[in-house]
Structure formats: structure tokens, C-alpha cells
Amino acid sequence: YPRQRAPETQLGEFNLTEIEAMLGSYTKVLFVRDPFQRLISAFMQGMGSSPSFSSFIQDVLDGGQHNASVTWKPLVSLCRPCLVQYDYVVVFGFLRQELGHLLRRAGLPAGSLLPKFTDTQVRWTYSWLSEQMFSELSLQQKKQLSRFYRWDLSAFPFSSSLLTS
């Protein structure tokens, strides 16, 4: 779609006709990650000032969805999957398989362009870490997190998420 504004122009700054034309002319790929894993990652990167994971989660919950950082805000509110018809949804933990498919669809040699992913190791590590950190939370926090991310858990294939339990 011909660029009519600066490269950093956000989609919302275009009118509806321009948005529809742009979205119709691109292959739209959405990368998603289990919301609980996103929270763990944010905590480990020091994105909150909380001394413990449990207190970090409480800060997130107390802040609510409207005040949430883009790092842990529910994906549905960021990506609008009900409004934008994505061509592909790629789930973190299956990147090598999914990216290979996308590159082949684009007519590119998938094998030579992909970095060496260790999806199995990443999934195992996050599974173990998730269980450890989930056990630190109170039952009330677990229920509140499930409610906080209810639309993400409904919209995306996070069947093994601890938040769906």
C-alpha cells in the first residue's frame, strides 16, 4: 500500500478506507505467547519494581487492563483479532515449524534463513518455570489472572496454559 505518511504512523491514524486497503494488501502475521509466560518474562527482565513474583502479579492486577503495560496487556486489546483477519497466528514455542512454513509460502528457502531454534528446550524450560512461579501465587491471584486474560485464553490456542486450569 502506498505510504502516505511517515513510517512510524500508526494504523489508527489512517481513515477506514485506507486501513481496509492496507490490511487487504498485506499478509498479516500475529505472534502470540501464553500470557503467563509473558508475565514471567516481564518480571525476569525487571519490568516491575516488585521484590517477588507474587507482588509483581498483584501490582499488575491492581493496575487493571487500562493501565497495563503493553508488555503484559491482553493481546486481544492490542492486536484486535476480531477486527483484523490475520493470515497466520504463530504461537511462541513453535517458531521453527511455523516460520519455516511462512518462508516456504513466501517462496523463500526456509532452511537456510532460519536461526537454530530449540523450541523443545524452550517449551520445557518455560513449563518448569511457569509451574514454579504459578505455585507462588494465591488462589485469588490465579483466579484474577484467568479473568484478566480471559479473552486471550479464548481467542488463542493456549491449551496448556496454567491460567486455563
From TrEMBL:
One of its GO terms (molecular function) is sulfotransferase activity. It holds the Pfam family Sulfotransfer_2. Its EC number is 2.8.2.-. Transmembrane segments: none annotated. It is a single-pass type II membrane protein. Keywords: Carbohydrate metabolism, Glycoprotein, Golgi apparatus, Membrane, Signal-anchor, Transferase, Transmembrane, Transmembrane helix. It is an enzyme of class 2 (transferase). GO terms for cellular component: Golgi membrane. The keyword DNA-binding does not apply. It is found in: Golgi apparatus membrane. One of its GO terms (biological process) is dermatan sulfate proteoglycan metabolic process. Belongs to the sulfotransferase 2 family. This is Carbohydrate sulfotransferase. It comes from Stercorarius parasiticus.
